[in-house]
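User: Run a structure prediction on this.
Assistant: Running it now.
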Amino acid sequence: MTVVVKIGGARAVDPEGALADVASLVEDGEDVVLTHGGSTAVDETLEELGEEPTYVETPGGVVGRFTDERTMDVFKMVMPGKLNTDLVESLQNEGVNAVGLSGTDGKLLEGKRKSAVRVKEDGKKKIKRGDHSGKIESVNADLLETVLAGGYTPVVSVPVLGKEKDGGYTAVNADADRAAAAIAGALEADLVLLTDVSGIYEDPDDESTKIDSAATPEAFETVKSAAEGFMTKKVMAAEEALEGGASSVIVADANADEPISSALSGEGTTLEPGALDTGEAAQ
C-alpha cells in the first residue's frame, strides 16, 4: 500500500506527530509520499519583506492566492527551500531517509501556466493578469516509484512546471491539496489530508457533526454542501484524487495521536471511490 500524506501549512498544525507516524509506517514497510503546504509561511515572509499577500475570489466564490512575479520568488524561497528542507531534516532525525523534491524536479508535476485569472471584485467579474499559477495535468509517477523502490521517502513541494504557449517552462504556484490529489491518483494510493480540524463537519462550527464517511454520490453531495472556506478546496482535491484513481481520501486532524495511522483506521472523514460512481458528484 502507498499512502500520500499532505500536511497543511496552517499555524495551528504541528507536524511533529505526523512525522513520527511517517517513520512508524516506513519502518513497517509502507511506501509514504509526504507533501506539504505553506501559505502561512509565504504570507509571513512577504510581510517581513514589507509586502502584502494578495488573495482574490473567483466568480464561483472560491478564494485563492494571486501569485505575481514577486510572490513567486518568495514561494520558491520558502516552499522547496526552507519548509521542504525542514521536513526532510526532521524525517532524517526520525530515522527516515527522506528526499526533498519540488514539482519542477524531473517534470514531477506539470501543467499549463495560467497567466490571467477571472476574479470577482466589488460584485463585478474581471480579468487579472500577471498570475504565476497553473493546474496540474500530469505527474511523473515513475520518478516517485523509482525513489520509493530505492528505499527513500519523497517529500514533495510546489511549485510545479508550467508550460508556456511558446513551448517553454516557468515555475508556477499550484494548490498543495490538489498537488497531493494528483500524486495520489497517479500512484493509486490512499490520500490523507491532515489539517487543523478532525474532519468535515455538517455544521462547520460544531465538531459533533463530523461526517464519518461518504461512499455514495448522495453522501458526497452532503460533504460538498457542508464544506466552506478552506475546506472547499480540500473537497475539490478529494474529488480530483478519486477521479484520478486514488483508493480513498481521508480528511483528518494533524494534531491527533498517530494522525496518519488513526486516519487510515477510520478517524476523520473518509471519502471512497463509490461516492463518484454515477458521476453525479463530478458535475
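Residues 2-282 form a domain with the Carbamate kinase fold (CATH 3.40.1160.10).
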